[in-house]
Batch of 3 targets.
Target 1
Amino acid sequence: PDASHLLAFNTNPDTCEPWEDCSGGDNEDPDVPVTVPDNLLQNGDAESGLSPWQPRGEAQVTLDTNTKHNGNASLFTSNRSAGWHGAAYPIKTLTPNNAYEFRVWVRLAPGTPPTDLKLSMEYQDSVDGVHYRNVGSSLATADSWTLISGTYFHAPSGSASGLRAYVESANATASYYIDDLSMTGIVDSASPEEPT
């Protein structure tokens, strides 16, 4: 998939990755897009509509073309009544005992006080049932876009199903925007389908 529109910034030159802008660029309307290589997710940026994004809990997930980190659209998550309610991206398969790097940009709705937003992974395995793993979190504001990034190590007990990456909030009723979700890592070579 073409990931040329996805952006990454790193203000620490000692840990700069090849795809990151290490000049200390502003999260708001960055000038120079930098490719995130080998993004395994299709439409993590909502440029092709809502699919395959889905609501989690009672949340309502809609397209927004007015407030976006990049491109022409973002996802707007509203109508939440619990912290875990939000927007989820289903993932068909991941390779066990491998690490995956996630990035997603978030922004609170106007008038919402700063609150922590968290990117998490959910899956069910054949031995221990449902698991929830925190990938990363950041303090988000309504004034600018904030990057959440982190590493997820996939280590299910037995076979895994129902994999979903999702954004949730410490504020149970906060509404927020999501854009440019990306994942890099190793796909199970035995699977005929890539994650979508």
Target 2
Amino acid sequence: LRFSIDDTNRDTKYRRNLMRHVIVPRLRAVNPRLHEAIRKAIEFLKTDDDYLESRAAVAYRRTVERSENNLSLDMDKLIRYNKALSYRVIRKALNELAGTLDGFESKHFALIFGLMSKENGKLVNLPKGLWAQKDFDRVTFGSCRKAGSLYRKLNIKDDVLIRDSLKIQTRLVTDFDLTRRKPGVEVFDRAQVFPP
């Protein structure tokens, strides 16, 4: 193989070159044993990481339930753990469903923890086709499935389970105050609903 030099290798406007040509040499001027210090720090961090992962595995078993396509986290139990462990439990759940954590950022974890202050049924979309939904004191994670037909014949006073946690209840009411409608409740004017 022929050796070649890329013109951008010396340009410090690129972060990698700034580190290589400016920052690391300055740090080595302060501490000539910089690489050894970094190696030792990595070893300490690895020890801490191993311990936290073992504790997170215990917390995961205590807070996570698996159903067919979903994982459900007991948030009341999870928030009793240290925040570092709670994040690791959620990371483990997301990794289990998505197969990777690529694309997940701190904002996604904030959305998940933020669900606890939202109304029941609140749903957030996540990377890799995943979603998280508040389900009373739990947060359920699932993956988006290919759209299929949700067509169902509904009769008055029916309770129909469409998919996993999607349940349709039909009731005929003659007087309904729209200003007091609860989350997850939709109202249709029967005179305006036409069958296909």
Target 3
Amino acid sequence: GMGFRAEVPTPGIAVLAVILLTCTAAIATGDALQLIRAAWRGETLVVRQMLDSGIDANVQDAGGVTPLMTAAARGHRTIANFLIKAGADPNHSGSRGCSAMTWAARNGWPEMARFLAAQGAVVDHRDGGGLTPLMRAAWNGQRDAVAALIELGAQVTARDRQGNTALSYALSRAEDEIVELLMMAWRKQTGSEPTL
């Protein structure tokens, strides 16, 4: 019966391996959410400690949202900087196609937009709806973000899937200062009057 005894532990080890793998996955998910939440809340120290402990800067929640995206959405520059230094991808986009740049623009964080662009983030990134950060900023009435994006070379003439430009969005929201900025930029970029 020696052969029989040797085989006995095998199922036990297999089961244990499954349990260990399950726990590892659960821990990773918990850490991911904790890092994403800390980035959202602006908890710089927590973010730094988690990154120092070796947690991947590119962790995602179920919707593909990363810590950098949440930091960008809230304008947390120091945290964004730590995340980039830890290898965060500035151009990752979630399930809706929004990038960190999209979030910085729509929530009106011009300094964040400049920082992300300096780290290689695409200024004219297209989200799931085919909109650029400039369009999102114009629609949300984020004048300073619009100005920053124009400075960064955002294409004012870009159109979404419905053929709308950032100017169309600004006009539809009666954002007069943004309309003025976009019209000036349009003339500068094209040498001609804006076409809607």
